[in-house]
Structure of maleylacetoacetate isomerase:
Amino acid sequence: MSNAETKPILHSYYRSSCSYRVRIALNLKNIDYTTHAVNLIKSEQLTDEHKKLNPKAEIPVLFIDGKALAQSLPIIEYIEETRQFKPRLLPEDPFKRYQARMISEIIASGIQPLQNLNVLKRVGDEKKADWAHHFIKVGLDAVEKVLEESAGRYCVGDEISLADCCLVPQLYNARRFNVDLTNYPIMTAIEERLNVLPAFQKAHPDRQPDFPGESVAKA
Amino acid sequence: MSNAETKPILHSYYRSSCSYRVRIALNLKNIDYTTHAVNLIKSEQLTDEHKKLNPKAEIPVLFIDGKALAQSLPIIEYIEETRQFKPRLLPEDPFKRYQARMISEIIASGIQPLQNLNVLKRVGDEKKADWAHHFIKVGLDAVEKVLEESAGRYCVGDEISLADCCLVPQLYNARRFNVDLTNYPIMTAIEERLNVLPAFQKAHPDRQPDFPGESVAKA
């Protein structure tokens, strides 16, 4: 097969934090991929074509190794297990692996699902800002507390991991909802160290092909 | 150290589906443990003592190997990585491992967080039944579709996995909310095969030390 046939394709929306996590992971592993934009505002994830790829009608979907994979954390675990070259996306030590997954899960199941578009629509325009603030703050409070124990330069010690792939998109989201981040000195310092790295810069929403405006992301 | 010192302790609530997942996993791996009940109705998860163990103020928390672990899926991954004897909780094949994690994640991030006590309180008494029904149904629709491809006797082929540890508690929850399960023939058939197994029977909410009523769980 030619490279064009085997190159992974990521079904992504520029500001979806779940897509953003997978973009970072692919970049960290130096896996070249093509972006296929799915516009959530236009409900493109609800088409029969997309639902065939992901019955949950969500993004991201990653075409890789001849298969269509859904759900960001399982996608990243699959990438790591099938591409065991460095950099690792999970630490070697089992307890540190646990820490990376635990931080990721606080974000992926404890924050993001409660503030996604779909849920906020059901909450209603009047209440949605308060709702999102509440759940983002409760979740980030917990993450900051966990980082007191786990963090070094990054979320778990001095090695970048799955947890960092989740943290940066969640902080991007928190800013969209105008959450005050001054109470989170550890995570915002980690974010600063991550956001200067090419893998994170390339994955930023403003740098995606479907970003609608002028790029404001700075190197 | 004596066995009494090293025996894991699970901070659990009988009908918490996240606790239920970990109970199943521990039983499948034949790991003997002690239950420490945390009553969510009495908000015992909000005490300073509990928050020191889990800053997200949730259960389960598992004391094992001298550490307190939180978040059900990372706990189960840790158990599997540190106890690599059979039965495996994740298949050997990377794509099947992905499938097991993906089904688990649809439940753990796509359904459960949207119908837990904490969220339903915020939704309010008037709307909470409709809200829970909606999110449980959307999630289970997706799981059933995935199972069309992945399932054998169990969620992924013929081996019990992490996905089965998540499915059974989610169906228990769906029944509590009176969700009609007749549209889910694959998952309910799998559930039936799982619920006759000792590891699943012992983990059932009705068999927990903090279950308040007469046991109705039948072998």
